[in-house]
Amino acid sequence: MSSVLARSNSSEEDLLFRLLRQLDAAPDASQRATALALGISLGRLNAQLRAAADAGLITITQRPGPDKRQRFAYSLTSRGAAEKMRLTDQFLARKLAEYNALHAELTGTASGLPPLKHRTHPMQNNLSPIPELYVSYESAQKLKVEAADLTSWDLTPRQICDLELLMNGGFSPLKGFLGEDDYNGVVENMRLADGALWPMPITLDVSDTFAESLELGQDIALRDQEGVILATMTVTDRWEPNKSREAEKVFGADDDAHPAVNYLHNTAGKIYLGGPITGIQQPVHYDFRGRRDTPNELRAYFRKLGWRKVVAFQTRNPLHRAHQELTFRAAKEAQANLLIHPVVGLTKPGDVDHFTRVRCYEAVLDKYPASTTSMSLLNLAMRMAGPREAVWHGLIRKNHGCTHFIVGRDHAGPGKNSAGEDFYGPYDAQDLFREHQDEIGIEMVDFKHMVYVQERAQYEPNDEIADRDNVTILNISGTELRRRLAEGLEIPEWFSFPEVVQELRRTRPPRSKQGFTVFFTGFSGSGKSTIANALMVKLMEMGGRPVTLLDGDLVRKNLSSELGFSKEHRDLNIRRIGYVASEITKNGGIAICAPIAPYATTRRAVREDVEAFGAFVEVHVATSIEECERRDRKGLYKLAREGKIKEFTGISDPYDVPENPELRVETEGTDVDNCAHQVILKLESMGLIKA
Length: 691
Known about the structure:
The model is unreliable at 1-8 and 117-124 (pLDDT under 50). The N and C termini lie far apart (91 Å). Strands 3, 4, 5, 6, 7, 8 and 9 form a 7-stranded mixed sheet that branches. Strands 12-11-10-13-14 form a 5-stranded parallel sheet, with helices on both faces. It contains 24 helices and 22 strands. It is α/β, with parallel strands linked by helices.
């Protein structure tokens, strides 16, 4: 009886396997054609479709059209794709066993074929070495010489981070930048073309001009920003992606308020290239070299110490006392050793720089028991993709030899969308991770929101305080911490370690001692330069910090004399102004910028450059185009109306009016001194200057 039942179960699984395979290959086929392909009746097909839909393996949608036989379309869910992969492996394993048995019957010897390995779990042991993409030292020396003659692509900072983790195995099982089929699978259902789980597109985005110069099959050299050849790549795929679709599927919304979506539309190249890479050498890091480990170096370290269980803590923020208590509890719960594994590649714009953060980590590392805790730096370019990012982080930590991973509340969340709401739910990341946990091969440890209970002088999980009505619960948010730092207020010891606060104050002094940038924008003739000059004089009169005026006309003359007035050149001119302003801000000075800066995306990029080091104050000089044309001191509007000046802002080229500037000033009927005084009052209210 049991053998009959086993055959029945096997037959049902085979039918399910063939159904999922058929729907994946021909999702738009009619039910009659699908039944015919499977060799079953329409009635049995409908029963199978209902069962698969109820199990969450497929989705069924209606299609408009006159043919009732083709009124439905089918698509596999992520669970369905995983089940198809499992059944495929099971089917192949059974067929291999049948072949081996037949081979032994006919020849009297075993076939010698190796057993089938599961494609999504190529490395079951967390301590054994994983494949890298580097060639040997001798081959690398030869390849460097040969690669010098290849067409080169200078990698962006994000691409350098991606390449490093491709080459050292951190992104295993990837063998290079994704080709089009893999990219489509990852975007649509978090799976590579072979079915392996992978949630994040790892693509080489390039300009269309560069892409057009290449042929498929051609090798190119990949260089860092100093021209050093890091790897070669064989270009197997070249395509123009649907970036809006990528934004919707990967980040949940095509909303430029998301930093990765903004990068996708306004920074990333138009064309994607895919293909395998050959690693020559890893990128050079001059900072914290003793803290940087490849996946195999960490695995060897764990192997040497005999660590069989390792829980990884992902962070892009300084460590405070709540984090310490959280990591202690996580390690205890998992009965594992602890790896503090902070990201030091690219994080969210406005985050504390990684130099400061690592100094903070090192300052408190001795608060942890050295025999059970280690720290290593991860050169990862985060995408802030919430749930998908959590799964991605889990796969990366699995490759680094970890067995457990702490997933936080709103893990890798980017903040608010354009409507002022969170991009992701607080526990969406934990839910998606839990759904794929077995396939990831690493166990999730839930992040607990820790708060300080004053009466007991200790941190406790917020949702486990039974007597919360009778105790005093204290907590300081990230926003409140930044406010206290900016205003030089006390940060209590129950919240953070004195060593951490000291490091933060070194990098983030009170706002009145920081550098900052005032960025005027408006039409030509709106009064930007006049107000900027008046503001400069007032700030110099106050003293305390050097003041530099970056007027549009002066910058054109001294920094951008070779540029024209096309959109590309105007963007480049503004980015140059932003770069200089960010350097002035970083070094504690005041930069006053007064270009037209007509494009919102470029102004946002400048804001991000500056806010890495200090405040950015956007001032919209809201003089109407009619008033500017009436003034027309330089005669430019007259020439533009006559068609003698092409692409003139406000006449033949658009101006993106700032939606939320820090200040908007009206110059019509208001004298210059009053306008400059409005800016002074705004700077005072922001704490950037003292009265």
